[in-house]
Amino acid sequence: MDVSGILEEHKNKFKSIQVDRLIPVEFDLGLLSCFDINMLDENKLKSNPTTRNNYLKELAREGAQLLINELFSLPTTIDEDSYYATLPKPTTVLPREKPVPKEKPMTRWEKFAKIKGIQKRKSSGKVFDEATGEWRQKYGFKGVNNDDQKPWLIEVPGNADPFEDQYKVRREEKKERIEKNKRRSQRNYEERVAVEKGIKPHEMRKRELQKALVMSKQSTASLGKFDEKLKGEPKIKGVKRKFDPLVGSADKEKSKNMEILNKVNKGVTKSTVLNVRKAQRAMNNAKRNKK
Amino acid sequence: MRPLTDDETKVLFEKLSKYIGRNIVHLIDRPDEPYCFRLQKDRVYYVNEDIMRKATPIGRKNLIALGICFGKFTKTGKFRLHITALPYLSQYATHKVWVKPNGEMPFLYGNHVVKAHIGRVTEDMPEHQGVIIYNMADVPLGFGVSARSTVDMRKVDPTGIAVFHQADNGEYLREEDTLF
User: Fold this and answer.
1) Contact predicate B90/B134, CB 8 Å
2) pLDDT in tens, A189-236
3) What kind and span of H or E run contains B19?
4) Residue A35 — φ and ψ, nearest 5°?
5) B108 vs chain A: nearest CA distance in angstroms?
6) Which residues form the domain of B37?
């Protein structure tokens, strides 16, 4: 039995997977894309819509065909019931969505470390505790840094008050250290804000202080009227209301009012320029009349 | 007494434009005599320039009223129209509602206008639009805000509210002490 005829017929039903391109098409399989830089046929593009659409559809099909041909040549892995092609890494560089973040100004410590040439050493966050035979965090929860709070007995230092609670002393010392660190980081933050605003940090601090001073002075029942004056205290100037003259030129007032009216009308027209209901009714009426 | 600031003028015009639309121009730009808006004790008066000049020597505490009071600024800076502005509003009104004779008294006693009392409505009135209310003899009775658009009004049942009451001529009696 000769089946070549049937095979031939079956083959003719589908388009060829062979696509010819004058300039070879570039692929970026990592992004599942291909780039065709061949010239478009201008005659077909400018002709009537059906041929143009068919031409564009054909182009798209051929591009997709090329891409799929390429995909099938990739190495595959077989999972339980399906084949997976492993895609290479994308080669096309996509522009980033957001602008590159600005560099933060250096903190005081970073400046100091740079001058002194102190470099950050990488160290693991864990320490081996020989007493328990466990690895423990250096800082934080269950950290080694809390160990000085723990011992069941603390020797009173030589020149200390013997009746002082040494546990309390240690507790408070730690609290103070934390507070100090917070103050430092707050200062770093404020200085950073000032630098970003283009003001010298101490100028900024001065300004803030004066603002706070004015606020606190005004916060008494008499708005600071009977408070003692400080040395070099800034004078508070309120905003003075200013009105147009009662009897001015009538034309001037009229033109000013007209200006404001135009502004108001602009806002009004925006919302009322199209009366949707009226337009709908007009449309419906037109349709009815046609019938 | 003082002229309005820009912000106050804007608030005033925005409110007026809800009732008379672009016809505010006719209030500002009058062919006969120059008129102006003046503020006296939170109230806005629409007054002839000539009369305003004559009122200048009167002190702020002593001046009770001048011209026609359009309304007053609330303490929060909004503007509230008074019934005394009705002659001008009705003259330039863009949207009108005519009330049947049986609906006149309920409205003049300060009630909303129900649909059953409506005689006639201008076409293409949107929802929440400032409207002037007339009786069937075309005498302005007051003003309010439309509760429904002209199209939706057909669907409302007869007792449903068609126009929200804002001010009516009855206020001349009811609010006699505070209005002026």
Assistant:
1) yes
2) 999 999 988 899 899 999 888 888 888 888 889 888 888 888 877 777
3) helix B6-20
4) -120, 120
5) 31
6) 2-82
B36 at A interface, C-beta within 8 A: yes
* Chain A residues whose beta carbon lies within 8 Å of the beta carbon of residue B11: none
Task: Provide the residue type at A188 as one letter.
Answer: N
Q: Which residues contact B116 (CB under 8 A, 6 or more apart)?
A: B103, B158, B159
Domain boundary among B82, B107, B136: B82
The residue written with tokens 């009392």 in the block is B117
Min Cα distance B144 → chain A (Å) is: 19
0.90 surpassed by pTM: no
Under 8 Å between Cβ of B132 and B95: yes
Q: Pick from B47, B82, B117: which residue ends a domain?
A: B82
Q: What is the CA radius of gyration of chain B?
A: 17
Residues in A closer than 8 angstroms to B13, CB to CB, are: 260-261, 264
* Domain-located, residue B88: no
The verdict on ipTM greater than 0.85 is no
Q: Is B89 domain-assigned?
A: no
Judgement on whether residues B108 and B164 belong to the same structural domain of the protein? yes
User: Based on the domain organization, do B10 and B48 belong to the same domain?
Assistant: yes
**Which pair of structure tokens corresponds to residue B32?**
């006969």
Q: Are residues B111 and B147 both part of a single domain?
A: yes
Quote the tokens at residue B138.
Answer: 């075309």
Task: Kindly determine whether residue A244 and residue B126, on different chains, have CB atoms separated by under 8 Å.
Answer: no
